[in-house]
Amino acid sequence: MHKKLFIPGPTEVMDEILNAMSVPMMGHRSKEFAALMEEVVPKIQKLFYTENFIILSTSSGTGLMEAASRNVVKKKALHTICGAFSKRWAQISKANGKEIDVIEVPFGKAILPEEIDKKLKTGEFDTVFVTHNETSTGVMHNLEEMADVIRKYPDVVWCVDAVSSAGGIKIEVDKLGIDVLVTSTQKAIALPPGLAIGVVSEKALKRAEEVENRGYYFDFLTFKKYWDKRHQTPTTPSISHIYALNVQMDRIFKEGLDNRFNRHIEMAKYVREWARKNFKLFPEEKYLSYTLTTVENTRGISVAGLNEELAKRGATISNGYGDLKEKTFRIAHMGDLTLDDMKWLLAQIDEILGL
Ligand SMILES: *Cc1c(COP(=O)(O)O)cnc(C)c1O
C-alpha cells in the first residue's frame, strides 16, 4: 500500500506529475529542449517574484548549497546555525576551504536579525548564509526582518536555503534582495527528487567572477554562459524533471499563488492548534514554520510505534531529526497536501493514541 507522505520531503507527487515524467526523451542540445527551458524559466521567475537568473541543476538541493559556497564566498562567510541543515551549509563551506564564522543558537530557536547586524558590522564578511525554514526543528525565519538588516551591507552577498519553504510560502526574491536562493523540487514544489533550482542575482554573478576555484559542475558562470548562448544547461539535465516542472508550474498558477500560500498557512494553523491541544510546539512561537510542524513529544509516546500504526492506515510522518528523535516528531504540510489531508491524518493519530 502506498503511504501518503506527511514528511518534509520527498512529498506526495500528483499522478499528473508522475505521468509528465514519463514522456519520450529529446536531445538536450536540441531546439525543442531550449524551447522547453524558455517556457519553464519565466514560470519559475514568476513563482519567486524575480527577474534574476534561474539555474536548473540536476542534483538535490545540497548540490546548489555547495554551489553557493563555492561561487560567492571570496574572503569570509557568516553562517547562521539553528539546526541540522544550517549546520550542513557551514560544513559545506568549510569542506570547500572557505573561511567562516558562525552564529549558533539552540535547536528550536531562531536567528535574530540583530545578531546578524552585529556580525556584519565588523566588515569581515562578504557573504551571509541563512536557512529560511530549518526543517530539522520547524523554525521558519522572517525574511523581511532579515532583509531590513542585510540591505544595509550592499557588498555582502545574501544566500538563502529555501529548500523546504519555496513553493509553499511567498518569497519575493527581488524585493527582499536575496542574491542566491536555493531550493529542491521534492519538497513544497512536489516533484520527485532529483532537480534543484537556483535563483542568482547580478551581484552574485559579479562576485563569482572574482572567486577562484568555483569547481566545474556547479559553476554559476558556466550555467549563465549556456543559458545566454543556447537556453540550455551545461551538462545533460534530467529532462524528465524539467517536463514535470513545467506541468507543475502550470498547476501552481492554476491554483493561484496566493491560494497556494494561503492553503499552506491554513494547514499550518490547523496542525499547530492540534499540537497545542495535545502536545506542545517545539519551536519558539514567533518563528513557527508554515510548511511543517515540529511537535514536542510531551506525552512520551513511541513515535516509531505511531508511525507503524499510521503505515497500516496508509500514512507516514517524520520522527524528530537526529538528537531530537523520539523527543519530537514532525508533520509536514507542504506541496500539494490539503487541509482535508491534514484533518484525516490528525484524526488517525487521535484514534491511534486515544486522544
Ligand atoms: C531537505 C533539505 C535540504 C537538503 O536538500 P536535498 O535536496 O536533500 O539535498 C537542505 N536544507 C533544508 C532546509 C532542507 O529541508
CATH class of the largest domain reads Alpha Beta
Query: What is the number of domains?
Result: 2
Arithmetic mean of pLDDT: 98
Helix content: 40-55%
Bound ligand species: pyridoxal-5'-phosphate
Task: Write the topology of this structure.
Elements: E1 4-5, H1 15-20, H2 31-47, E2 53-57, H3 61-72, E3 77-81, H4 84-95, E4 100-104, H5 113-121, E5 127-131, E6 133-134, E7 139-140, H6 143-150, E8 157-161, H7 173-176, E9 180-184, E10 196-200, H8 202-210, H9 220-230, H10 239-255, H11 257-278, E11 280-281, E12 292-296, H12 303-312, E13 315-316, E14 318-319, E15 328-332, H13 339-353
Parallel strand pairs: 1-13, 3-4, 3-5, 5-8, 8-9
Antiparallel strand pairs: 2-10, 6-7, 9-10, 11-12, 12-15, 14-15
Helix pairs in contact: 2-10, 5-6, 10-11, 11-13
Description:
This protein has 355 residues and is of the alpha/beta class. The protein folds into two domains: 4-9 and 257-353, Aspartate Aminotransferase, domain 1; 16-254, Aspartate Aminotransferase, domain 2 (3-Layer(aba) Sandwich), CATH 3.40.640. Helix content is 43%, strand content 16%. The protein is built from 13 helices and 15 strands. It has a seven-stranded mixed β-sheet with strand order 2-10-9-8-5-3-4, with helices on both faces. The protein has a four-stranded antiparallel β-sheet with strand order 11-12-15-14, covered by helices on one side. It has a two-stranded parallel sheet with strand order 1-13. The two termini are 26 Å apart. The model has no long low-confidence stretch (mean pLDDT 98). Bound molecules: pyridoxal-5'-phosphate. Residues 8-9, 60-62, 85, 131, 133, 135, 161, 163-164, 184 line the site of pyridoxal-5'-phosphate.
